[in-house]
Amino acid sequence: MSNKAKKDGVVVLGGREFKRVKNGLDEAQVASFIDELTKERDKLAQSQNHIASLNRLADWYSRHY
Amino acid sequence: MSNNAKKDGVVVLGGREFKRVKNGLDEAQVASFIDELTKERDKLAQSQDHIASLNRLAEMTVVEADKLAKQVKTEAAEQAKAESTAIIDKAKEQARQMAEQKIAEAVEIANEKANAIKAKAEEEAVLLLENEKIKIRGELHNLVNQQFGYMLEELESLKKQAAAVQADFDNKLSEPKEKDSAAAVEIAKESDTIVTKITEESDAIAAKIAEERDAAAAKIAEEIDAAAAKIAEESDAIVAEEIEAIAAKEKDTAAAKIAEESDATVAEEIEAAAAEITEERDTTAAEEIEAAAAEITEERDTTAAEESKAPDEHPEPSQAADYIEKSLDLSKLLEIEDQAELGKPQWEVEILPPFDIAKIMEVVSFLDQLPEVANTEMIVPQIDMPSILVFLRESMNLVDVLQTIPAVAHVEEVTTDKAATDGEPGKGPRKVRISLSGNTTSQENK
């Protein structure tokens, strides 16, 4: 996950911009959690794609045989 | 998403505690993003759970379909056996009736032929008898005439001898002349007596000849009758033998013909019945399998439709974790590590026909389990052959690996103008073509 300090007062985590405020949340903890959630989501999305591919294969197979 | 301020300086977002710090991130923005990510994850997890359920349902249905197919097959075999037995019995009965009818017809034909032959033989026997009678009569007539001629000649000879004696006596009598007239008279008397006697004897001989001729004629007539009777008897015996031989021959021919026709009929009926039973069994099995497949498809579509219609309600994080746990089987199969840097595939595996979906799945599963493989993706074109894209985590020679998979019969790397890239940016994947082992069965079954 790419975190970039775009400019002073703004932080980018998981492709989203976050403002810095006076009494805000710990950046390291937030970054870690967002990274975790993103990984889980991507893993599930890949599984979904894999299943969709298999489904297409099954349809193709049933059409041809 | 539940956000609780547990205590001063600590905020809970998505079940995780975050410290408050000086110059930290805006809580509202962070909460919104975490909520967004959690919803997406939970939605995908729910979908996975549905798919896992469908997978289990499909497996159960396949097992049930197998059981049903076996049951149908067993029942069809029993039914076929019973029907074939009934058909054979029926055919045997028909053959028996046909045989009886044919034998009766053959006997009738044989009798007709025998009667015709008998009538013809009788006619020929009568003609033969008549000819024999005429022939024997002619011969007999000739014989009698010949004998009669001989006897007449004898008689004429005797008469000549008597005349000679008479003339001699007359000469001798004229020479002494009246010497002894008494003696002459006596001699004349004796001469007359001798002539009379000769005449009588001649008549007696003639009568005797006539009598013998009649007796011979009667005897010959009796012999002719006896011969005719014997000929008629022999003719009847010959006719009877011939009739029996013809009847036996006709019967054998008819029996052979009936047996041949019966065998052909029985074989044809059994073959037709077997074909009918096989067709019925195939149709039934196909219908059962189609019904099961339709049921699975319907359930899958229904589930998918429900899923797409469902509102954006997401379970709590703990429920989401349960879903993930439940779909463990599927996740294991499709386990994919975090691949933020997957990029382009390093290999493309083309699968040559004929295809076997189970073998293809075996290849994909094998590749997914390799530590060097980050991910695989199945490409299914509309017309062309399917292929598997392989994303590598580490460099490896896929050709060697593919050759170790039991489901793969043949591996061939396709050399193109492009150089081997191992995922180099801007260049295509290395291509490999494989054919599957022992994959004729599934295709033939289709």
Q: How would you characterize this protein structure?
A:
The complex is a heterodimer of chains A (65) and B (446). Chain A is α+β, with helices and mostly antiparallel strands and 65 residues long. Helix content of chain A is 58%, strand content 28%. Chain A has one domain (4-64). Chain A has one helix at residues 27-64; strands spanning 4-7, 10-13, 16-25. In chain A, a hairpin with a 2-residue loop joins strand 1 (4-7) and strand 2 (10-13). The radius of gyration of chain A is 20 Å and the shape is rod-shaped. The termini of chain A are far apart. Among the domains of chain B are: 96-260; 336-446, no CATH class. Chain B has seven helices and eight strands. Chain B has helices at residues 27-174, 181-309, 317-326, 328-333, 357-369, 398-403, 440-445, and strands spanning 4-7, 10-13, 16-25, 347-352, 373-379, 387-392, 408-414, 430-436. In chain B, helix 1 (27-174) runs antiparallel to helix 2 (181-309) and helix 1 (27-174) runs parallel beside helix 3 (317-326). Chain B is rod-shaped, with a radius of gyration of 64 Å. Chains A and B meet through strand 3 and helix 1 of A and strand 3, helix 1, helix 5 and strand 5 of B.
